[in-house]
Design goal:
The protein is of the alpha+beta class. The chain folds into 2 domains: 1-31, no CATH class; 33-205, no CATH class. The chain is built from 4 helices and 15 strands. The strands form 5 sheets. A 4-stranded antiparallel β-sheet has the order 1-10-9-2. Strands 7-13-12-11 form a 4-stranded mixed β-sheet, with no helix packed on it.
């Protein structure tokens, strides 16, 4: 049973505290070696780059909350910028950023809670997690923890990546983690300018493979049991030999299923669903 933060705020906060304590204990007992060392110079080989626009239309959401998230991103990005992930080390989003509290300068931004948009301190940091996840799956780094939204809250607007190709985070037990099981050392760079959140992953050596993400089986459908509109897809990763340009293999990255929170209509005669254009 999910506890609503709006209907039962005390029980919700108590439940969050319980989850956070369990997470902290489990991380201590895991004996993971977390990436924390930083470098002042770029590693030699650029592996992957990406950028995402800071402000975009998201349904009828309050643009003010998107504007304030830039403040939050500007605080979080430097804690990750230039971190090294050495062989055997694990990157942990929250281990580097820490708790996004008002006393640390974080402000209210947009949060998604059980499919609803709310304002919350530290809101908007999912954009950074989305960027990091998208970059990480274009490298040989092993994703060990990634969570997705169970709701599709907004119709596509200016989407450039496949549906559900990001990662949701919530301090501290909904984390994004990936481990370096290779002999290479990787460096993560993230920074903001006036329009974009930028990211790069570099390495200390040339890698023998590169990676390409493809989406398959994307559809909207009605759940027969609940009558709710759902959206799903699968993301696959093609691993390509740099020397020959030939694909070595293809592997499933993730399968995503989410409840749709905006209006959709049937395409006549096909049984498929498409977004309602407003």
């Amino acid at each position: 049973m999910k506890i609503s933060r709006i209907e039962h705020p005390f029980l919700y906060n108590l439940n969050v505290l319980r989850h956070r304590l369990i997470w902290q204990l489990s991380e201590i007992l895991s004996f993971k070696k977390f990436a924390c060392e930083k470098t002042e110079i770029d590693l030699l080989f650029k592996i992957f780059t990406h950028k995402s626009v800071l402000i975009r239309k998201l349904g009828n959401s309050d643009v003010r909350l998107q504007q304030q998230k830039i403040k939050n991103l500007s605080l979080a990005a430097p804690t990750i910028h230039r971190v090294l992930i050495k062989p055997g080390e694990t990157f942990s989003y929250w281990n580097l950023i820490g708790e996004p509290l008002a006393r640390r300068g974080y402000v209210e931004g947009m949060l998604l809670s059980q499919g609803e948009v709310i304002a919350g301190v530290g809101g908007g940091l999912c954009q950074l997690a989305n960027l990091l996840y998208w970059m990480a799956i274009h490298t040989p780094l092993t994703i060990t923890e990634r969570h997705r939204h169970s709701f599709d809250a907004f119709p596509d607007s200016g989407r450039t990546l496949p549906f559900a190709s990001g990662a949701t985070v919530f301090y501290n037990y909904v984390d994004l983690q990936f481990r370096n099981d290779t002999e290479a050392t990787f460096e993560i760079k993230v920074w903001l300018d006036e329009e974009f959140l930028h990211g790069e992953i570099l390495a200390d050596r040339q890698l023998p493979t590169r990676y390409h993400i493809v989406e398959r089986d994307h559809r909207f459908f009605l759940d027969e049991k609940t009558g709710k509109t759902m959206r799903e897809n699968k993301l696959f990763r093609q691993i390509i030999d740099v020397r020959t340009g030939k694909m070595i293999r293809e592997e499933l990255v993730c399968k995503n299923v989410a409840k749709v929170k905006y209006p959709v209509v049937f395409s006549h005669g096909t049984g498929l669903l498409t977004e309602k254009i407003k």
